[in-house]
């Protein structure tokens, strides 16, 4: 962020002076954040599924099954990216708070039950809303709501970034 200078609806990079539309610049970063997390989830799920499948004699079946189970978590990983985009658009100096939100979400999801936190507190984490995909029917409702909330965060962040002044440093 320190190498950007406002140029109307564009941002200009100090190093080479190239002007890029703010929307394009934002989308390039969001593509890496959202796409990268999906690739990591897909790779891990597929690898775990194939490894388990080789053990039981069904690598393709288990690979696909675990791939789907891993990708169902993608919307929960995208929510912190939406928070980061919103902070970047509204309060760029506080963008690092998105990491604090991610840590809080993970702690609530992993330790909430152990610490006997109330359900409403654990439900603050998007990770609490991942439907169980293995061994039963899947409820897509929570994923739909997470997708809507995340899309709203991303769009609001992009809209506020379009309007704010960018100061070079």
Key descriptive features of the protein:
single chain, 169 residues, mainly alpha, three-stranded antiparallel sheet, 6 helices, 3 strands
Summarize the structure.
The chain is mainly alpha-helical and 169 residues long.
Task: Give a written overview of the molecule.
By secondary structure, the protein is mostly helical. Helix content is 63%, strand content 7%. The chain has a three-stranded antiparallel sheet. A hairpin with a 5-residue loop joins strand 2 and strand 3.
Poorly predicted segments: none
Tally of individual helices: 6
- The N- to C-terminal Cα distance equals 8 Å
Reported for the largest beta sheet, the result is: 3 strands, antiparallel
List the topology elements:
Layout: E1 4-7, E2 10-13, E3 19-21, H1 22-56, H2 59-71, H3 74-90, H4 97-111, H5 119-122, H6 141-163
Antiparallel strand pairs: 1-2, 2-3
């Amino acid at each position: 962020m320190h190498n950007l200078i406002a140029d109307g609806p564009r941002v200009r990079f100090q190093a080479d002076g190239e002007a890029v539309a703010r929307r394009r610049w934002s989308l390039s970063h969001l593509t890496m954040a959202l796409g990268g997390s999906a690739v990591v989830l897909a790779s891990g799920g597929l690898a775990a599924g194939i490894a388990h499948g080789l053990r039981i004699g069904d690598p393709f079946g288990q690979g696909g099954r675990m791939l789907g189970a891993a990708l169902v978590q993608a919307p929960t990983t995208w929510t912190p990216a939406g928070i980061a985009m919103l902070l970047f658009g509204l309060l760029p100096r506080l963008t690092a708070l998105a990491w604090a939100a991610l840590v809080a979400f993970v702690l609530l999801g992993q330790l909430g039950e152990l610490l006997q936190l109330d359900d409403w507190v654990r439900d603050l984490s998007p990770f609490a809303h991942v439907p169980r995909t293995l061994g039963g029917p899947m409820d897509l409702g929570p994923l739909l709501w997470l997708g809507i909330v995340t899309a709203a965060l991303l769009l609001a962040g992009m809209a506020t970034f379009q309007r704010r002044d960018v100061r070079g440093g």
